[in-house]
Amino acid sequence: MKHLWLLMALVGAVAAPSWAQDAIYRCGNEYTNTKPDARSSKGCKLVEDGNVTVVQGTAVPKSSTPKPNADSVSKMPRVDNAQQKARDSDMRRILQEELNNAQARLEELKREYKNGEPDKLGPETRNYQKYLDRVAELKASLARTESDIAGIRREIDRLPAAARPQ
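^ thats the sequence. predicted structure below, dont judge the formating
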């Protein structure tokens, strides 16, 4: 019993300062707990319900690298038109290959999905949940592949006119 009173006294001594908190006022993005500051500033409101914790921000150090100026931009190496056209052509070829692969994968998934009723495989005849999980996975794969195809087509449309097929 003696230890219980000692423990309660210790908890009371530690917790007592946190029970009494002065009124806090919010003045725009600043907080203050002094009434004269709050009264002199217009638009200060008393903050109710809850404690406020304010963390002071740190100053952002200025970077040591200077910003590029017109002279440094003009010294950047340029790519000649023939080399850029070759790069665009390579990019177009790669994107077209990706599009063809994605379309083939989409056709394969559609054949397997069969409008939401794919064939049951081995253990799925006894465990219907496995079948439902596979159907959901196929549906998600279809949606993902269609999204991939749309993204590849957007990338192809962004290519310069010279790299597109005529």
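DSSP finds five helices and three strands in the chain.
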